[in-house]
Amino acid sequence: MKFFLDTANLKDIGWAAPAGLIDGVTTNPSLLARHAGDLEPQDVLKEICSLVEGPVSAEVVAVDTEGMLAEARRLARLADNIVVKIPMLETGMVAVRRLAAEGIRTNVTLCFSSVQCLVAAKAGATYVSPFIGRLDDVGHDGLDVIRETRAMFDNYDLGTQILAASLRHPRHVAEAALIGADAATMPPEVLRKLLQHPLTDRGLEQFLADWKTRSARRKATV
Ligand code: E4P
User: Fold this and answer.
1) Distance between CA atoms of 10 and 197, rounded to whole angstroms?
2) Which of 85, 193, 212, 219 is catalytic?
3) Residue 189: how many CA atoms within 13 Å on its side-chain side?
4) What pLDDT score was predicted for residue 139?
5) 41-54, pLDDT tens digit by residue?
6) What are the residues whose beta carbons fall under 8 Å from the beta carbon of 194, sequence distance 6 or more?
7) Is the Cα dihedral 52, 79, 125, 32 positive or negative?
8) Which of 88, 94, 50, 60 is nearest to 165 (CA)?
9) What are the start-end ranges of the H helices in the chain?
10) What confidence tens digit (pLDDT) does each residue in 146-168 have?
11) 35, 7 contact by CB (below 8 A)
C-alpha cells in the first residue's frame, strides 16, 4: 500500500520524504490556502514535487470542462510527477477522459460513493479518492465505499487505483489496507501516529534501563 501525505506544508513533507515514509503527496485548494503563505501556489507545488519522487496531486479550481483542461495542462507542466485532481462532476469526467488521452494522470476527488468511483474509473482516472472521514462525520461507514469500490474494480479488472482519503486515525489506515486500497493519503499527525504505540515506548524504556543496570553491575565487579 502506498502512503501519501495529505498536506501542502513543506516542513512536514521535508520530514516524511527523506525518512522514506511516504510515496507521494496530495494537496487540495484548502491545504494550499492554509500553507502557501505569501508564496504562489504553483511555486509551493513545484517545491513539493522536488521533495518527493512519487505522485503529487494538485487540484484544479475550475468547474467547467474547458477551464479544467486548461488548468490541468498548466499544472502538468509544473513537474513530471504532478497528478491532476479533478472533482467528481459530469464536466470533470469529460475532462478526465480527454486528459487520459493526452497522457495526463488524474485523481478524481470528492468521491462519496462506489458508483462515483466506478464512473471515474470508466472515464480513465488514474486514481479515485473516496473520502472516508467526511462520510463517517455524517453517520455513514466511509470504509464501505472502499469495500464496494474494491469489489467493483476487481470484478472488471479496472486499473484505476483506489486512494483512501480523508483518513482521521490509524484504524482507518489499517482497515483501508485490509480491504485492499492501493494507497492511503493522511495528514502528518496520522502518519506520526502510525509509528507510535505506548507499549513500544514502555518496552524500550525497560530494555534500556535493564541494559544500564547490567553495565553498572559489570563495572562494579571489575
Ligand atoms: C484528499 O486528497 C483530500 O485532500 C483529503 O484527504 C481531505 O481530507 P479532510 O476530510 O481531512 O479534509
Assistant:
1) 26
2) 85
3) 4
4) 98
5) 999 999 999 999 99
6) 170, 173, 186
7) positive
8) 88
9) 10-16, 29-35, 41-51, 65-78, 90-102, 114-123, 132-137, 142-155, 170-179, 188-194, 198-221
10) 999 999 999 999 999 999 999 99
11) yes
- What is the atom index within ligand 1 of the atom nearest the CA of 185? 6
Is 122 assigned a catalytic role? Answer: no
- Residue of the nearest CA to atom 6 in ligand 1? 166
Q: Identify which of 161, 162, 160 has the alpha carbon closest to the alpha carbon of residue 145.
A: 162
For the chain, residues with pLDDT lower than 50 are none
Instruction: Tell me the angle at which helices 90-102 and 65-78 cross, rounded to the nearest 10 degrees.
Output: 40
Residue nearest to atom 9 of ligand 1 (CA): 166
Q: Which pTM does this prediction carry?
A: 0.96
DSSP class of 160 = P
Q: Rounded to an integer, what distance in angstroms lies between the CA atom of residue 183 and that of residue 159?
A: 13
